[in-house]
Amino acid sequence: MAENMEDRFNQACDYLPSLVKKLDSSTLLKFYALYKQATVGQCNIDKPSWYNMEAKSKYNAWNSLGQMAKSEAMSKYIALLNEVDAGWEDKEQEEINWDESQESGSKENEGQTKGWVNVSSMINDESQLDDNEKNIYEWAKEGKLDMLVKQLTKLKDFNINQLDENGLNCLHWACDRGHLKVVQHLIEKCGADVNVTDSDGDYGLDYAKAIEHTDLIEYLVNSGAHSSNT
C-alpha cells in the first residue's frame, strides 16, 4: 500500500477504470473533476458551447471546485474511491485498456496521464438501460410519448419543469432530440413552461434551433418561447 499521497492518488487513478461499469455518471463526473483539479489545478478551459452536453457537464463539474488545492483534490479523490470500493488498495489491480483517442495539444488534456479515462467512455450509454430503469427524462429523450405518459401517471406530484442531474428538464431533452409530439404534450397537457431555462440559462428553443428542426421551432415560437441567442 502506497504511503505518499501522490503515490496513493496515482494508484487510485490506475484502479478506477476497473469500476467503470459499476458507477453512475454523476459519480464519474466527480472523479473527473477531482482528477483534473489534482493534476492541472483550477479549471483553465473555456466554457463549452451550450449544446455540447458532455463537455458542458465536465466543465461544470471541474469549474465547481474553484481554487481547491491540488493536494486536497487528491485526498478527496482517494476518499471518494474508498466510498465506492472500500479496501480497493488491497485488491489486485485489473488490467486496463486505455482510450488513446485523446486530442493532443488542447488545454483540457494538459497534465492528463494514463490514470484517467474520458468520462464519455465511462458513462453508461442510456440506450443500454432496461425499460424499467428508465425515468421520465429518458423517455423524453427517446421520444416515447406513450411511456412518458405512463410514467407521469405514476408521478402525480412530479414538477414537469424540474431539471435533472444534467441541468435539463423534459422539455429541453425533447427539444434537443427534435420530438415535436412530446414537446406538444408537455406544453399542452402537462403545463410545461416553455420559457424555463436549463442550468446554464438556455431555453428549449435554443436546442430546437441547434438541430434546425423547423416544425419544432415554429411551434415553440408560436407558443411564446424565448431564445438566448436572438
UniProtKB/TrEMBL annotation:
Q: Which residues form the ACB domain?
A: 5-90
| Stated name of the protein | Acyl-CoA-binding domain-containing protein 6
Is Ion transport included in the keywords of this UniProt record? no
Q: Which InterPro entries match?
A: Acyl-CoA-binding_protein, Acyl-CoA-binding_sf, Ankyrin_rpt, Ankyrin_rpt-contain_sf, FERM/acyl-CoA-bd_prot_sf
Please provide, alphabetically and separated by semicolons, the GO molecular function terms listed in this UniProt record: fatty-acyl-CoA binding
Residues in a coiled coil are none
Q: Where are the ANK repeats?
A: 166-199
Q: Which organism is it from?
A: Diaphorina citri
Residue ranges, annotated region (Disordered): 94-113
Known SMART domains for this protein?
Answer: ANK
Which SUPFAM superfamilies does the entry mention? Acyl-CoA binding protein, Ankyrin repeat
Identify the keywords attached in UniProt to this record, alphabetized: ANK repeat, Lipid-binding, Repeat
